[in-house]
Design a protein that fits this description.
Layout: H1 15-21, H2 24-34, H3 39-60, E1 72-76, H4 82-95, E2 104-107, H5 109-112, H6 120-131, E3 135-139, H7 154-167, E4 173-178, H8 180-189, H9 191-196, E5 199-203, H10 208-221, E6 225-226, H11 228-241, H12 250-271, H13 278-282, E7 283-284, H14 286-290
Parallel strand pairs: 1-4, 1-5, 2-3, 3-4, 6-7
């Protein structure tokens, strides 16, 4: 007599216990701890985690289920944490059993599209091979499509990607990223992508206060501090810098910090002859901040592409 296929199935599932045992709680707490701001992004990740937990519970109870479409679109300005969140998402999918490896492969158009006939397909397939079992993150994905160039091979890469996204969605998650307006145009021109992307997440710019908190976090990671007057100067820097061209949120803050370290090192080397203690070596002063060109630039003469704020 054949065994009842449902006999070994549990009668119920404790979602809270699944949440705790899967390690998802730790990942979400890590996301809150390590990433400042991004409240709507974090909420969408929690919602995605809840969906996947429920789907896993349904599967364990023998209910009809289908692997959810997990391909995503991340839109927002540079430096808003899209790549970092993609890495966290890969970890979440691994913990819940939706990808085998949970690694992230980050690429741009140059990694996928060749420059001559017969070059694109092998490049794209090699990238997809490396990404299988994890997440493929394509930054500035709209550059794959260049309709103004009849000899461009981006369309070939797009067709291969679309096929794999459909046929291998239980072993690969693709995240397309870029500026919001350009991504909208890209999806309009490529309905195949729009139909395969289930989750659209917009990354807001950081506020001035969040950028200052990010600066403090970056400094603390490398055992640096801002003197009280330097912190005031850096808040002024943020307010000025974000109105100038090529501002890239947290990325611009990191660049500013690196240049402040250079100025601090030069100041200490030029002005100090005796022994230095750890506090002196670790403290950024106001002069290290206000030496930036951001404070010298007049509103009518904004920072140019080649300048170093």
């Amino acid at each position: 007599m054949d065994a009842d296929p449902t006999a070994a199935l549990p009668a119920s599932v404790d979602l809270r216990a699944e949440f705790e045992s899967s390690g998802v709680r730790e990942l979400l707490e890590e996301l809150d701890r390590d990433m400042i701001g991004l409240k709507p992004v974090k909420q969408r990740i929690r919602e995605t985690a809840a969906l996947l937990l429920v789907e896993r519970a349904r599967r364990s109870l023998g209910l009809s289920h289908q692997t959810p479409t997990l391909h995503m679109s991340f839109t927002g300005n540079p430096g808003t944490g899209k790549t970092t969140v993609a890495l966290k998402m890969a970890g979440l999918l691994k913990r819940l059993g939706y990808v085998r490896k949970g690694h992230l492969v980050s690429v741009t158009r140059d990694d996928l599209v060749g420059q001559y006939i017969g070059h694109t397909a092998p490049k794209t397939k090699e990238v997809l091979k490396r990404a299988m079992g994890g997440v493929l993150f394509i930054d500035e994905a709209y550059y794959l499509y260049r309709p103004d160039n009849e000899r461009d091979y981006g369309q070939e890469a797009i067709e291969i990607l679309l096929q794999v996204m459909e046929n291998n969605r239980d072993d690969l998650v693709v995240i397309l990223a870029g500026y919001g307006d350009r991504m909208d145009q890209f999806f309009t021109s490529n309905p195949g992508f729009r139909s395969r992307i289930a989750h659209h997440i917009d990354f807001p710019d950081y506020s001035d206060d969040e950028l200052l908190r990010i600066a403090r976090h970056m400094l603390a990671e490398q055992n640096y501090t801002l003197s009280p007057s330097a912190e005031t100067a850096f808040a002024d820097y943020i307010a000025r810098r974000r109105t100038q061209p090529h501002f890239a949120n947290a990325r611009s803050i990191r660049n500013a910090f690196d240049r402040a370290r250079l100025r601090q090192a030069n100041r200490l080397f030029e002005s100090t002859s005796g022994a230095l203690d750890a506090d002196t070596l670790s403290r950024i002063e106001e002069s290290d901040i206000r030496a930036s060109r951001v404070f010298a630039a007049e509103p009518s003469h904004p920072t140019g592409p080649g300048s170093k704020p």
